[in-house]
Design brief:
- The chain is α/β, with parallel strands linked by helices.
- The chain folds into four domains: 193 residues, Nucleotidyltransferase, domain 5 (2-Layer Sandwich); 69 residues, 3-Layer(aba) Sandwich (Rossmann fold), CATH 3.40.50.10190; 89 residues, Rossmann fold (3-Layer(aba) Sandwich); 167 residues, Lipoxygenase-1.
- The protein is 20% helix and 23% strand.
- The protein has 14 helices and 27 strands.
- Strands 11-17-27-26-23-19-20 form a seven-stranded antiparallel beta sheet. Strands 3-2-1-4-5-6 form a six-stranded mixed beta sheet, with helices on both faces. A six-stranded mixed beta sheet has the order 16-25-24-18-22-21.
- Helix 5 runs parallel beside helix 7 and helix 6 packs across helix 7.
- It is globular.
Length: 635
């Protein structure tokens, strides 16, 4: 019996695999802390036939968490096996198969931690996220939740948040999504899952951010003040841990690197050739010895505490607030798009790689001159500069510029050389209107089919544009997910990273740099999520950010010598919730030679959080960008 269809999935060629569909219900959302309460696994062969099914409740040995969501009470879980008692059976079902889940990194991480606790390896080398797959397919649904996609694809759903029923629903969604991906000739967003060492799952206590603002540099003969940024370099008479512990207890901000914002450097070897000493000399940062530092620690003066943001207010309640384009409907919760009135703040220049001057942002196009409103336009062919200009023109006309062929594309602009693109046959089969560059001068084509539209299309944000991130009245600030996507690449990889910055545009410590090697900030408030080789997401729990964090910068970097001129455009979208409807979308082009690119900023404006679409590229690599934000990168 096939759960997905009697059709033979093996006819899909590259879209046919041995699949292991998984769903877990958990006691919370943090895999390194919370536990799996129930698990279901269904295995499907390449021909679409079900080959196995297993589900069980699990006794986690802890509080089951949000019972109102999953319905799994302590009483229901009593007598259930522990994970280590069923790990062998689950392992056998996962072996040599592609793990499939909706928001697959969530299920993968929880299983990886449970297997580690059982002193076993998670036998998964590849995973497929149906959420990421459908973001590429881009069906005309209001969101990407499992129930919404089930309704769209005609898959019956009986019991939401029941692991086994969710897995059966997932099987139907997988088959339908594979069919759509094959029709669009989209490569599957398979994620390679290398073996993970058990030490990666050991809980690490988060560092406590300094509670005080940086008062500036130490003045000659003056006292230390709480919040001063202090770096220590070279050999010390006292243990380094003791010095740092005493300084932190006194309210100082102990740093592992030196920047122009460092208040003082402590060293017994001022002529040292260490990186910190050389940087202190270059930046004019005061230098004191260990004895002086210990003496000053006896009388550290009061600092200014970081203030948490006030309660949410509307943008125009703020004194000096920027002008906004008001929502169309009275009382609408649609956020306002704000034209950027000033240059984008940039990271400090690295001594080895000067940062270029900022580019001026483009103004938001007027609302009355938007002939491409609601249309999604794919530009094919052309040299990068011409293609980038065409995508910019699409946005100026009120449309959204696509980076891949998807179900939501309504029009195609064909530039020189575009007729050789492998997607041309798919475009013809879908009977999409194809235009030349002149069409963007005065587009007059008939309206596209209504099936391509959602009830609420994402706001199209131009480069430099700003959008407010709304919060329901009286409710906790939702989690936001900024997803970056690009045309699939085969010769190089693109990494998405994030920096948590204070009022000085600097990280509080190196761990506030989130990247593939450290995918979570110390507080867990910012995480890197990988949905596929052409998509990565930064998840932000804005309510849990430390008060010192005033901005989160999201950037992209290319591994190796390739440039964004080769990659083409990167699309970013912002959504409330991992499977929520996109609130806003921007398509960003760097010029030709850039290897790193700032995509977006999430920043505080009074009590409001805002997102700015940046699109600023740099010729230097990620290491130089990180140094500019105060991250200690070894030479």
């Amino acid at each position: 019996m096939s759960l997905v269809s009697s059709s033979d999935l093996s006819s899909f060629g590259d879209y046919a695999h041995d699949w292991a569909l998984v769903d877990v219900e958990t006691s919370g959302l943090m895999a390194r802390r919370d536990r799996v309460l129930s698990v279901a696994v269904i295995t499907i062969a390449p021909d679409g036939k079900q080959t196995g099914e297993f589900s069980t409740l699990l006794n986690p040995g802890c509080d089951p968490g949000p019972v109102e969501v999953h319905g799994l009470t302590v009483e229901r879980l009593q007598g259930a096996p522990t994970f280590d008692q069923v790990a062998g059976r689950i392992r056998a079902m996962l072996q040599d198969r592609v793990l499939v889940a909706h928001n697959a990194q969530f299920d993968y991480d929880f299983l990886a931690h449970e297997f580690a606790r059982a002193r076993m390896w998670l036998p998964v080398s590849q995973r497929l996220c149906t959420l990421a797959l459908n973001r590429q397919v881009d069906p005309p649904t209001d969101d990407m939740k499992l129930g919404t996609l089930a309704a769209h694809y005609g898959v019956p759903q009986q019991r939401a948040h029941d692991a086994l029923d969710d897995t059966r629903v997932l099987a139907g969604i997988l088959r339908a999504s594979l069919h759509e991906a094959a029709q669009l000739d989209l490569p599957l967003p398979l994620v390679t899952c290398p073996p993970r060492a058990e030490s990666q799952f050991s809980p690490k206590p988060p560092k406590t951010p300094c509670a005080y603002r940086n008062p500036g540099r130490l003045t000659p003969g003056g006292p230390l003040r709480q919040g001063m940024k202090v770096a220590i370099t070279g050999e010390t008479a006292h243990a380094r841990a003791e010095l740092i512990g005493r300084a932190v207890a006194a309210g100082l901000n102990m740093m592992t690197s030196v920047s122009r914002h460092t208040s003082v450097v402590v060293t017994n070897e001022p002529a040292s050739e260490s990186t910190k000493a050389r940087r202190a000399l270059a930046e004019g940062v005061p230098v004191i010895d260990e004895h002086t530092f210990l003496r000053l620690l006896t009388d550290v003066r009061q600092g200014i505490v970081h203030e948490a943001p006030a309660a949410l207010v509307t943008p125009m309640d703020q004194p000096g607030a920027e002008a906004v384009i008001a929502p169309v409907e009275p009382g609408s919760t649609t956020p306002a798009v704000v034209p950027a009135a000033e240059s984008v703040p940039l990271p400090a220049a690295s001594p080895s790689a000067p940062v270029p001057a900022p580019r001026r942002s483009r103004p938001v196009t007027g609302t009355l001159d938007r002939p491409l409103a609601g249309r999604r336009v794919l530009v094919l062919g052309g040299v990068h500069a011409v293609a980038a200009a065409a995508r910019t023109r699409v946005v100026e006309l009120g449309g959204s510029a696509a980076v891949n062929l998807s179900a939501s594309v309504t029009d195609v602009v064909l530039l020189e050389g575009g007729e050789g693109d492998r997607r041309i046959k798919r475009i013809a089969a879908r009977e999409l209107p194809v235009h030349d560059l002149h069409w963007l001068t005065a587009p007059t084509a008939a309206s596209p089919a209504r099936s391509a539209f959602r009830a609420q299309e994402p706001l199209v944000v131009p480069r430099g544009g700003v959008v407010d991130l709304p919060r329901p009245n009286g409710r906790r600030t939702p989690k936001w997910y900024v997803t970056a996507g690009w045309a699939p690449q085969t010769e190089y990889e693109i990494d998405i990273v994030a920096f948590l910055l204070d009022e000085d545009e600097q990280v509080a410590f190196d761990e506030d740099f989130v990247f593939y090697g450290a995918p979570e900030s110390p507080t867990g408030s910012v995480r890197l999520l990988t949905g596929g080789p052409a998509e990565q997401t930064i998840g932000l729990d804005l309510a849990s950010l430390p008060p010192a964090t005033r901005k989160v910068v999201i950037a992209a970097a290319i591994d190796g010598v390739a440039t964004f001129g080769t990659v083409g455009a990167i699309q970013i979208s912002a959504a409330s919730g991992s499977s929520g409807a996109p609130l806003a979308r921007a398509t960003l082009d760097a010029a030709t030679t850039e290897r790193t690119m700032i995509l977006a900023e999430i920043y505080r404006r009074g009590p409001i959080w805002r997102l700015r679409a940046v699109g600023q590229g740099y010729d230097h690599g990620l290491d130089a960008l990180a140094r500019g934000y105060g991250v200690d990168i070894a030479d």
